[in-house]
Amino acid sequence: MTAPEFKRVVPPSKDTAIDAPRKIPLGFYLEYGLLRVMSTLARPFSLRAASNVGALIGGLGWRPFAIRADRVYRAVRACFPEYTEARVREIARESYRGLGRIAMEIIWLSRAEKADALAAFVEPEGWEHIEAAYARGEGVIVVMGHLGNWELGASYLAMRGLPTDAVAMHMANPFSDGFITRTRTRLGLNVVFDENAVRRIPKALKEGHAVVLVSDQGAKGLAGTFVSFFGRPAKTPRGAAVFALRNRLPVIFVAAVRQPDHRYRFHATPVPIADTGDREKDIDATVQNYTAVIESYVRRFPEQYFWQHRRWKRQPPDTPPHLREP
What we know:
By secondary structure, the chain is an alpha/beta fold. It has one domain. It has helices at about 25-40, 45-60, 70-80, 85-110, 115-120, 125-135, 150-160, 175-185, 195-205, 240-245, 280-300, and strands at about 140-145, 165-170, 190-195, 210-215, 225-230, 230-235, 250-260, 265-270. The strands form 2 sheets. It has a 6-stranded mixed β-sheet, sandwiched between helices. Strand 5 (about 225-230) and strand 6 (about 230-235) form a beta hairpin. The longest helix is centred in the N-terminal third of the chain and has 25 residues, at about 85-110. The protein is globular, with a radius of gyration of 20 Å.
C-alpha cells in the first residue's frame, strides 16, 4: 500500500562508519511538525469537514500552482479522447482536489476511532466476494489501485474485523513514515514493508489473512510485467499474481470510492486467474486481468484516480511512438 510520492529508503552500506550519524534534513522535521499540528486541528471536525479543507488545498496544485498540470492533462486526454475539453479539465482538477482530500482524511484518521471511520462508509458492494474468499481459510490476495481513498480501502477490511496485512514502501521522511504507519496500525492493519514482504507474506497467507498490494505503479527494482493500461504498455507489479498462482489463492480487487455525499462505498470485484499450466504466461495474463479491472474502475470514476503519477514511465524499448507516455 502506498501513498503519493512514497520512496524507497536506502539503508546505509556496510562500509558506512557506525559513528557517522545520519544527517536528517530540516524539511523532514518541518513536514512532521505540520502533520502533528494538522492532526490536532482536525480532531474536533468531522471527516467530511476535513476532506473539504483538503480539497481546497489540493485544488491549488491544479491552479494556480500547476504542479505537473500539463502531464496530468495529457494523461487524461490520451485516455479519454472522446471527452470534451471541459470534461478533461474537470477530471484533472478533481484529481488534485482528491489528493488533497486523501491527505487530510489520513491526518484525520490518525486521531479517529474505528467506529468514526466505519461511519464514513455506506453499504459495501461485492462484500460477498470478500466473505467467500476468507471462508476458504487459505489466505486472500487483495489488489488495489491508486483510486478513491486507497488507505481507507485497505483499512476497511481490518476495521470489519478481518485479519489484513498491507504491503507498503517506506517514505523518504522517517518521521512521516512512522506517523502513517501508526495510523494504519491503529485502524487494525498489519503493515508489512516491502523489504520484509518475501518472508512475511507467506506466513500471513498461511494464517488465513488477506494480503493487500497496490498494483498499478511500477517502481525501480520491483518485479513487473508490461501489460496494457488504456491501450498503452505500462510496467505493472506482478507480485499479486505470483503469490496467487503459487498458492492457488483468489484475487480480489477492492476500492473505497467517494460518493456524492462524500462518504465512501467499498467495492470488491473478483479477478480472473489464468491457469494454463505455463506459470510465466499465467502470471502475465493474471497481471493483465487485474489491470483491466483497475482500468474499468478508472473509467467509471476518472476524477478519483491518481493521474499525477507517471503510469507509463516504464515501457518496453520497442514501444511505438504513438503508444509512449502521453
